[in-house]
């Protein structure tokens, strides 16, 4: 019996799987926010004050859009998982199952880690539950 519905589990696993993509999206957003669009002097005079581009960039960085905030949370969740499972079977499973290219089957992963497929399934369930708990601690609604 699973703690999550299939849909919730798939969504959590998708967030784990998209770790590297999320990191690059966040970095691109930060670069774009820092570069920002520089308004010309006429536009600033129409606003009746001279805007500070550094302050504008700081304001953008301090209040990212919701999708970026959520990606940042999931990146921190996955980094927490990676730190906790480093050097253990779960750490190797995390790397092989979610980020290996080309993607491996459960049987291939089981053979590589000298585990049974049932053990792989149980370890994956534990990883998903742990990820959901850490995400919930950070304010993500995993049941939406």
Could you characterize the architecture of this molecule?
It is a single chain. The chain is mostly helical. It has a domain of 89 residues. The chain is 73% helix and 0% strand. α2 packs across α5 and α7 crosses α8. 16% of the residues are buried. About 4% of the residues have low confidence.
What form results from the Cα inertia axes?
elongated
**Ends: how far apart?**
20 Å
Alpha carbon gyration radius? 21 Å
What level of helicity do the residues show? over 70%
Task: Write the H/E string, N to C.
Answer: HHHHHHHH
Total E-strand runs = 0
SSE-based structural type: mainly alpha
Q: Main beta sheet, described?
A: none
Which percent range describes the beta-strand content?
Answer: under 5%
Poorly predicted regions:
39-44
Overall pLDDT confidence = 85
Count of runs of 4 or more consecutive helical residues: 8
């Amino acid at each position: 019996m699973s703690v999550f519905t299939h849909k919730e589990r798939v969504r959590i696993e998708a967030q784990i799987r998209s770790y590297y993509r999320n990191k690059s999206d966040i970095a691109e957003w930060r670069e774009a926010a820092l570069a920002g669009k520089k308004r010309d002097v006429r536009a600033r005079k129409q606003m009746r004050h001279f805007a500070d581009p550094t302050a504008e960039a700081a304001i953008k960085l301090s209040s990212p859009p919701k999708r970026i905030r959520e990606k940042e949370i999931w990146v921190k969740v996955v980094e927490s998982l990676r730190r906790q499972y480093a050097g253990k079977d779960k750490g190797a499973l995390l790397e092989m199952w979610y980020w290996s290219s080309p993607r491996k089957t459960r049987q291939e992963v089981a053979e590589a880690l000298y585990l049974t497929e049932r053990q792989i399934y149980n370890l994956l369930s534990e990883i998903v539950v742990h990820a959901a708990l850490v995400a919930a601690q950070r304010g993500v609604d995993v049941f939406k």
